[in-house]
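Lab channel / #folding
Pinned by the channel admin:
"Please post every new chain as: sequence first, then the structure tokens as a reply. Keep commentary short and put observations after the output so the thread stays searchable."

First post following the new format, from NK:
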Amino acid sequence: MIKAIKDRILLKPEDFKPSSDKLEILGVLNPGAARLKNGHIILYVRVIEQLIKNRDAEYFYSPRFAGEERFSIKIDRFKKNLVKKHTNFDFSFEDGTKRLNYISHLRKIILDKEGLKILKIEQKPGFYGLSWDAELGVEDPRITKIGDTYYMTYVGLSRKENISTSLALSNDGINWYRRGIIFGEQDKDVVLFPNKVGGKFVVFDRPEGNFEFTQPHIWVAYSRDLEYWGKLKAVSFSGRSNASARSGAGPPPIKTKDGWLLIFHSVKETRRKGFFHAVGRTIGLKEKVYYSYDVWAALFDLKNPGKLIALSSKPILTPQGEAAKSFEEKSVIFPTGIIESGDKNEILIYSGVGDRFVGVNRLKLNEIMSSLEKAR
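Reply from TO:
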């Protein structure tokens, strides 16, 4: 693991106020990041809010966005006899579909030019679902600037489109025009390259289906107009490094003289047996699965972005301490934002930590490049 020049928890749930008295903040995480024209850095942080009352004797409750243009939340209720099973975060029906008792939107955070000092935390939702776009939640933004335009990809949840990725454009990084869905059902971790390649826009994405011959992993795709994407190709790290085959792009890649540098997450799965208990009695052994989200680096060809050149031999960042433990007992550091420093030899990586916090790591770019080994 690379030694960070600076790493810290930047934002916590208690730094934010709920958007409604019916909701409480569960976590703040997975920010998109961009440098504004005045040099300050803006983060769009995913804020997860859960219903304080999510069930009673007769009903389960689920929030959704109901406004056509403005922020508005409606609480739907469902009779308990319609619900087949439930957890602390969702409930499922007989047909296998589900609803959530939480909802996500994005809030704007302004940082200083160095990217480590908070200047302003907006206490109102800055980007959120609408009745026609991501009505069940907006998640995990990534922001790329090409020329004078900011491009934000974000995951949208809805009853009709399920889980998909949409695109929004901005001239100032503050006001956004929504272009709609660019990748369909269960295609996430979409990051746009900061330059065209061969006259085309390029993205890394991560499609995932219910039927799998391989674990979900990164793909590359190309477009002339940001709407129609083609030349799809899978990019697999399986067998080429110690990184898990299950992977997804982190922040947008950055251009170096040696290639496109991508910071990505890799999910490691371990199984351990332990005793489980009931009413104070030890019942027996039970196998439990634990997941760890690590951060790795990869290098791709400048003219052929789907061609893998090199990989880090070890994670460049790993989950550290209690802050990285999620509600589901995962160990998580999930990178989504990246900012290059003025001297071009340092980068800031903004991540979700433990599905509850926003963390920042300042790393030497040349140390990351030195950790890369030619892909096997």
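NK: The chain has one domain: 6-374.
TO: also worth noting, The domain at 6-374 is CATH 2.115.10.20 (Tachylectin-2; Chain A).
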